[in-house]
């Protein structure tokens, strides 16, 4: 059964997880024409997957939480405390990290060095007067290259010269450097090769193991089933189902049924 059993385990190195404290609670999140009364909770030590068809409102939900969509109403709680997020900087201060799907536009500055990209999101914390602490950045950059296996000629190379998978790992390292508590990954493995995908899953496992909360939007059902502890299925800006990993509904057919608007008994 080598051929049957192994490839999936190798593709999705899922680890046993333990639900910790409540990290993010979203209550009655609405955005005109986009989101309708979205409610969910995400916990430390867990990967919460968001599934659904294109246009289901998954990314819109995360953009609202992160303060990119300013038309929203509803309440957001981080570790049980109500937070006010009207712009991304507020979200970062609330220890939320958002790895957008659009790496080119929102994730990286392609003609800037790998080193500077690795620290784009932490600049608030690293500024000494107006000067970044260059020695500290260089040391941390080298650690990042090792721990994320980022292949680059040097930390000074422009990030745009790296492969897609290595660029994605720079984006991830950039956000992990902020030491956030809540990590939102939007299509984290789109457009990268299998080897880089597995490294991304290992990073997610590391975050969860260290007590962080990971939320993953993915259009790939094998990835949703392979890595999530719980899955929320959205359609037309609404939550249709919430499915636990050990539920009988934790399968492709039922997730697809909910995506198309069907009820799960």
Characterise the protein shown here.
This protein has about 260 residues and is α/β, with parallel strands linked by helices. It has eleven helices and twelve strands. It has a six-stranded mixed sheet with strand order 6-9-10-3-11-12, with helices on both faces. It has a four-stranded antiparallel sheet with strand order 2-1-4-5, covered by helices on one side. Strands 7-8 form a two-stranded antiparallel sheet. Helix 9 links the parallel strand 9 and strand 10. Helix 8 packs parallel to helix 9. The chain starts with a helix and ends in a 6-residue tail after the last helix. The relative contact order is 0.18. The N terminus is likely disordered.
Helicity range: 25-40%
Oligomer: single chain
Number of helices: 11
Q: Strand-and-helix sequence, N→C?
A: HEEEHEEHEHHHEEHHEHEHEEH
Give start-end ranges of low-pLDDT stretches: 1-6, 126-130
Give the biggest sheet. 6 strands, mixed
Tell me, briefly, the overall form.
globular
Q: List how many beta strands DSSP finds.
A: 12
Distance between the termini: 33 Å
- Strands across the major sheet, in which order? 6-9-10-3-11-12
Task: Tell me the structural class.
Answer: alpha/beta
Percentage of residues in strands: 15-25%
Mean pLDDT: 88
Rounded radius of gyration (Å): 18 Å
